[in-house]
């Protein structure tokens, strides 16, 4: 009986490995961006470019900034295998001081959640060129 169960388990394991479904797969050019010093009140935009290295179309379900100070623009149409797209994160730079923000991407990719990072320091206009 044990041999039959072990054989059946082995067959099921082998079958499940063979039936792995194709997936979409992000290949990012970068996942972090450092703005350095930015002038207060002048929004800045980080662009994060990716290619779908998977076997099926990549669909981004949502892309959200970590706070209301970040607007996010992302492709609404599916990205076909081998094609590229860009996520744009615009930070409003309203408050003085250091910032460290994220953009959370939800998709049908192999790793369904991706977190992009950007940081910098908002300074008064007269300090931004030093």
UniProtKB/TrEMBL annotation:
<protein>
    <submittedName>
        <fullName>DUF1573 domain-containing protein</fullName>
    </submittedName>
</protein>
<dbReference type="InterPro" id="IPR013783">
    <property type="entry name" value="Ig-like_fold"/>
</dbReference>
<feature type="signal peptide">
    <location>
        <begin position="1"/>
        <end position="20"/>
    </location>
</feature>
<dbReference type="InterPro" id="IPR011467">
    <property type="entry name" value="DUF1573"/>
</dbReference>
<keyword id="KW-0732">Signal</keyword>
<dbReference type="Pfam" id="PF07610">
    <property type="entry name" value="DUF1573"/>
</dbReference>
